[in-house]
């Protein structure tokens, strides 16, 4: 697991380690060890963390560094499907994320190449 992602997610929501630990029903020192990469959460706790922060297990387990990539390297469709963002303070559902990608596909499809976009 990428421990730096735990800290990123917690700080993004302006939460303390104690806030997160209490929500997950674990000790603050245990959560602190997860965040520092000293200890790995078990599978069930990992699922609880993903649910709590509204992110996928894949997001927590990836070994790339999405926060340091150049903007030009971002795959917008993959980002939209990942769901680690909010729109108007709400995390979009998987169905809504797919709709967003479908809209982009329609906008940039070959069928529209000859049409003028406004």
Topology, element by element:
Blueprint: H1 3-12, H2 17-24, H3 28-36, H4 43-53, H5 57-61, H6 76-82, H7 94-108
Helix pairs in contact: 2-3, 6-7
Give a structural overview.
- The chain is an all-alpha fold.
- It has two domains: 3-61, 434 Repressor (Amino-terminal Domain) (Orthogonal Bundle), CATH 1.10.260; 71-112, no CATH class.
- Helix content is 55%, strand content 0%.
- It contains seven helices and no strands.
- The chain has helices at residues 3-12, 17-24, 28-36, 43-53, 57-61, 76-82, 94-108.
- Helix 2 packs across helix 3 and helix 6 (76-82) packs antiparallel against helix 7 (94-108).
- The longest helix is centred in the C-terminal third of the chain and has 15 residues, at 94-108.
- The chain is elongated and about 55 Å long.
């Amino acid at each position: 697991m990428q421990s730096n992602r735990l800290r990123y997610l917690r700080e993004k929501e302006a939460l303390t380690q104690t806030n997160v630990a209490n929500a997950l029903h674990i000790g603050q020192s245990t959560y602190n060890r997860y965040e520092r990469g000293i200890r790995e959460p078990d599978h069930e706790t990992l699922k609880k963390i993903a649910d709590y922060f509204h992110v996928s297990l894949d997001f927590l387990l990836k070994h790339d560094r999405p926060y340091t990539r150049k903007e030009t390297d971002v795959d917008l469709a993959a980002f939209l499907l990942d769901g680690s963002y909010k729109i108007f303070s709400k995390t979009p559902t998987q169905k809504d994320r797919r709709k967003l990608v479908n809209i982009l596909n329609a906008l940039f499809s070959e069928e529209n190449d000859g049409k003028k976009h406004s």
